[in-house]
Amino acid sequence: MDLAAEKFAALSVEEQGDRVVVLLNRPEVRNAIDQQMVDELHIVCAALEQNPRILIIAGVDGVFASGADIGQLRERRRDDALQGINSTVFARIAKLPLPVIAAVDGYCLGGGAELAYAADFRIGTPDVKIGNPETGLGILAAAGASWRLKELVGEPVAKQILLAGKILNAEEALAVNLITGIHAAGDLLGAAHSLADRIARQDPLAVRITKSVFHAPAEAHPLIDQLAQGILFESQAKFDRMQAFLDRNAERKASSSDTADGK
């Protein structure tokens, strides 16, 4: 699938070699997530499932996503809820083969927060406001927050957010590791790319398999770890990278020996 050939309206999509950058692009409604954005995120997911690359997700105009589109949400009924419109695409994003980085600025609420929770990494700006105000609207956070958030920040904080409507600022989110770094707004995408660069320096197959093993259910361990390691032990990258490590160590030792001998 060629993303460059696709026409996006709710997203801005840029392919950069080993990564894809997606900007949520509905500034007139603070990047609220509507059906079109969901459909376009599915297109991006299909491309990354076919050709795995790192995904960076951010918003435009100083906002990540203010939530789901309330106008559309107001009209949805039981059958719409049972379709899992947002939860399905967020689960797909969470299961992408290579890591997903959410670069969060400003409002990251409701469905926008649940999209960020589905990422493997979250970094933010000092203006971050992240949380789930769904119960104040007479619904629940049903696109992942009701179970992902507890895994991310622990039960006490998750209940503050989900049951009491607490919105975390950047420092509060950092303190509970909901985000792992705070950067000036102008540096946010650069920081996301720096993190992507670090990931890209690892062996892609090892990263991909490690992500799958990390998210495997508890009962799958340790067997899944052993099977995964068996696959990696046979990969050419393992031999090449380990040999390069040994060669560098040998060179350092030789250099140290020459220095000690006064050469």
Task: State the secondary-structure class.
Answer: alpha/beta
> What is the number of beta strands?
8
User: Oligomer, anyone?
Assistant: single chain
Order of helices and strands: EEHEHHHEEHEEHHEHHHHH
Number of domains: 2
The CATH C-level name of the largest domain is Alpha Beta
Name given to the CATH architecture of the largest domain = Alpha-Beta Complex
Helix tally equals 12
Can you tell me the residue ranges where pLDDT is under 50 for at least 5 consecutive residues?
Answer: none
Rg measurement, Å = 21 Å
**Terminal-residue CA separation:** 57 Å
Strand content: 5-15%
Largest sheet: 5 strands, mixed
Descriptive overview:
The chain is of the alpha/beta class and 263 residues long. It folds into two domains: 3-201, 2-enoyl-CoA Hydratase, Chain A, domain 1 (Alpha-Beta Complex); 204-261. The protein has twelve helices and eight strands. It has helices at 35-50, 70-75, 78-83, 85-94, 111-117, 145-153, 155-164, 170-175, 188-200, 204-214, 223-233, 236-260; strands spanning 11-16, 19-24, 54-59, 100-104, 107-109, 121-124, 129-131, 167-169. The strands form two sheets. Strands 1-2-3-4-6 form a five-stranded mixed beta sheet, sandwiched between helices. The chain has a three-stranded mixed beta sheet with strand order 5-7-8. β1 (11-16) and β2 form a beta hairpin. α1 (35-50) packs parallel to α4. The longest helix has 25 residues, at 236-260. The chain is globular and about 75 Å long. The protein starts with 10 loop residues before the first strand and ends with a helix. The mean pLDDT is 95.
